[in-house]
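Translate sequence into structure tokens.
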Amino acid sequence: MLKILISAFTCLALFGSTAFAASSCSSSNGTFPVSGSCDSYIECRNGVAEEKLCPDGLLYNEKSTGYPCGYPIDVDCQQGQGRIQPAQPTEECPHQFGYFPLGDSKNCGQFKNCADGRGYVFDCPDDLAWNKETYKCDWPDMVEDCDAAAFLGFKCPGPASSSAKSKSSLLGEQAAEYHFYPDPQSCQHYFICLEGRPRRIGCGEDRAFNQELNECDDIENVPNCSAGVKQKGSDIKNARLQASKAQTTSQRSGFVKPQKTLGLDCPEPNGRFAAPEQCDAYLECHDKIGEEKLCPDGLLFHQRTHTTGDCTYAPLSVCKERTRLQPANGTDECPRQFGFYSLGDPANCGIYHNCAHGVATLTKCPEGLAFSTDTYQCDWPDTVKECNAEAFLGFTCPTVTRTEDIDDNEEDMRFYPHPDNCKRYFVCVNDRPRLYSCGRNLAFNPDTKLCDFYTNIPGCSAGFKFNRN
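Result follows.
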């Protein structure tokens, strides 16, 4: 479970503003639950007790060693049907704090992070869906209220299809629930169908799905990839390199101090307009009177239309030549007041800091994925430059000695069982590991290198643990 740390400056409403006698404190200092309530608590300082209320949307976390309020998913309230304060919704958020899904069952890849009633919209990594039960982006077939087929735009064919037959001949009829299909819209993606529900998986920028091998292959070996797709892969790599250089330059540059300006500086009588040189500054105009303003530290101004724009996170904004930034106003937890930041540990790159108002919330990627500071998304660890995939996953791809029986394709992607959990397995892509997991009721079969019923896997128990006895 995640723990959140929110500093004392966050607006806390007092529950009745009541000071209690010293006898209300079981110890001189600390916080304690209030009987019958899930979001209020007693704070004791030097034996003096005061009842307080968590911000709307958070609950009292008795196990916290820092700030005592946490997200509901992190809190096990033991008060039964304990009372909770009335919601304090805004136009953007149903509660002042929390994570909330957006869209319907066919559009389940977005969620909103609400802080102080302000909503920040985020996209899950491509082809993953927001799981409100875990506060994570997950495979859509694992999200109960997501229609995976409608969300991904692909319906798994019936068992009579040719691909299904070829796979069932390897696993037997009982396991004919795990099949590969090419993505009809992209040669660089493919679908895996688990119990009739799809997952969409990408091969990367310079690789594509080979239907004969049922795996990712060098893009030059896949005839249905166009020359334009191959060129685009090269362009994406170059664009990211240039963006990385621009970001480094902007962090070293100065900034323009906001100031009052005359109406003549307004392109239009009303609206918001990007500053010409500074990425986190903008001009706000009302009736031809303009004022230069700064985005909160860590956010950048994004010009959405000719007269509208707002402050958003770095990957969602296009600054181009506007490279200047205000000086960082960081805290002990956050390099800047707002933003997403890695922990700086290459062996622990699946957790990152979500900073709001200089306060960091620890957020966890889906299992096996690492956080990329370039995209603000969780991705395969071998594609995240600041992540040591081997240390993070606890697995190093075995060295393969080249023989006449091993061709290049076999070396590019190899499958290995997880040493402890028979539901999980490792895929070595270009000698770098990735962690995969089979669907419900399935486990990895090291003989066929496919997911199978756990009863067909020697030593695999119903709890998907290997029985070593």
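Note: Residues 187 and 226 are 9 Å apart (CA to CA).
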